[in-house]
Design goal:
mainly alpha
Length: 84
Amino acid sequence: MILSPMRMRLEHAIAQWDQRQRNPNAGAIALMRLDDAIAEIVAGKSVPQALYDNFNDRLLTVLEQAAGVSVTYGGGTHDKGRPL
């Protein structure tokens, strides 16, 4: 599958993010959301849209950077909104 290298980068980014979380379930929840995002990408949604629709805040920024797409979340008034 073409998405395998990207999926691995995103899973690695989630693992690193999860180490800084206090909630022991945060990583598992994020990985389930990643499954949903990958399914949307396979169905034809763009990578930035799928990430934006499934994640938020700092994790969204981490995943956008890992995927190599433009960062949309800037916090508060700096948020650029849902990508086209």
